[in-house]
Amino acid sequence: MISLATEKQENVVTDLVRKIGQYGGTAPGPIVVCIGGIHGNEPAGVIALRNVLKRLSETKPQFQGELIGLAGNRRALSRGVRYLDQDLNRMWMPHRVWSLKSEREVSDGTSENIEQRELLAEIEKALGHNPESAIFLDLHTTSADGAPFAIISDTLINRRLALQMKVPIILGLEENLDGTILNYINELGHAAIGFEAGQHDAASSVQNHENAIWITLLGAGCLSPDDAPPVTPLRQQLKAAARGVPGVLEMRYRHGITTSDDFEMNPGYLNFHKARRGQVVARDRRGEIRLPESGFLFMPLYQKQGDDGFFLVREIKPYWLKVSALLRRLHADRILPLLPGVDPLTEKGQAYLVNTRIARWFVIEIFHLLGFRKHAEVEGKLIVSRRRQSPEE
Ligand SMILES: [Zn+2]
Question: What is the DSSP secondary-structure string of 20-54?
Answer without folding.
Answer: EEEEE-SEEEEEEEEEE-SSTT-THHHHHHHHHHH
